[in-house]
Amino acid sequence: MSIPQTVYKGHGTGNDFVVYADPDGEYEPTGDEIRFLDDRHFGIGGDGLLRLTHPRHVSDLDADQVAFFENEGVEWFMDYRNADGSLAEMCGNGTRVTALFAQMMGYAAGPGGEPFRLGTRAGVKTLTSLGEVEGLGRNVFRIDMGAWKSDETKTFEVTIPGTEGSARGTFVDMGNPHVVAVVEDRSGDGLADDATLPAVADLDLVTKPVVAPVLESDQNAEFVRVDAIDREENRGVAFMRVNERGCGETLSCGTGLCATAVTLRKLTGIDDWAITVRGGTLMVHVDDKHVELTGDAAIVGRVELL
Fold it and tell me: What are the catalytic residues (predicted)?
């Protein structure tokens, strides 16, 4: 087995992972091992696997990429794999869990200490440990998710096989691809007038959504209900569900939350969003250049594999 005997279980607002440290580069997992560990019936269970290692020990990084991270002063890399064993570019919730795990292992400073610079396949992400924050959790991190890219709004049609109706989706690149569809709008701005899908809470997201036209790469799909907009305070409130490529519906998706806030900003001009997912509430700030995501993380247990 190419994974260590001791692994950990963690989650970021319900988006859960098997986590382990590999400082010497001895334990790069195979696809079969990832699928076993993340299986909720025969393994530990998780939406993905987080291997904390040094950039030089990540086999899909070439020499130029390793040199880039070393020149940026990045010691640690989040080698993230989806539950189906596939590589993933980025996971916002995974970065917070990785940072908390790094604190536990003594690799990163706690609240009030130096921000933690973490390598990912989507570049360097900087996480600031905030500790306990009322309304968000006990181990809260603010992460600079970096630049976002997006096309014109509502250029895609999103449907769910077996469910009547459709909604218009907006493409957002957060280092991984997303299509965000506003399905309900309680703010009175008419943001979902073109949507005929059922209410967000009632959607069948076990079934993989279909996006047309088809993107070159598979994408995550977010379905959103806008609950309130306060233009004087430049704040909005929303609820989101997501079908995440490689694992299906998850209780939370960090890059999906960011993609949702980017889309809502494009539609409303509002920069700050409190977005609730089934795993909790997170804060997202968007400007023209980047996105900041603030939310909780937890390490819930240590597992000795037999």
Answer: 91, 253
Query: Six-digit token pair at 37?
Result: 């560990």
Element holding 258 (H helix, E strand) = helix 254-268
pLDDT digits (tens, 9 = 90+) for 37-86: 999 999 999 999 999 999 999 999 999 999 999 999 999 999 999 999 99
Catalytic residue among 58, 91, 140, 237: 91
Token representation of residue 142: 């603010």
Query: Is 15 among the annotated ligand-binding positions?
Result: yes
Element (H, E) at 37: helix 31-38
243 is in an annotated binding site: no
Q: Which of 211, 238, 247, 253 is catalytic?
A: 253
Name the β-bridge partners of 230.
235
- Is 247 part of the annotated catalytic residue set? no
pTM: 0.95
Active site residue 253: yes
User: In whole angstroms, what separates CA 121 from the centre of its chain?
Assistant: 13
**Residue 143 in contact with residue 95, Cβ under 8 Å?**
yes
**Residue 152 burial (CB count, 10 A):** 8
Task: Identify which of 161, 155, 156, 148 has the alpha carbon closest to the alpha carbon of residue 254.
Answer: 148
DSSP 103-162: HHHTSS--TTSPPEEEEETTEEEEEEEEEEETTTEEEEEEEEEE--EE-STT-EEEEETT
Domains defined along the chain, listed by start: 6-146+296-304 (3.10.310.10), 149-289 (3.10.310.10)
Cβ neighbours of residue 72 closer than 8 Å, sequence gap 6 or more? 117, 119, 124
The reply, when asked if residue 244 is annotated as ligand binding, is yes
Other beta carbons within 10 angstroms of residue 5's beta carbon come to 11
For the stretch 174-218, pLDDT in tens is 999 999 999 999 999 999 999 999 999 999 999 999 999 998 888
Which tokens sit at 254?
């960090």
What three-state secondary structure class fits 239? strand
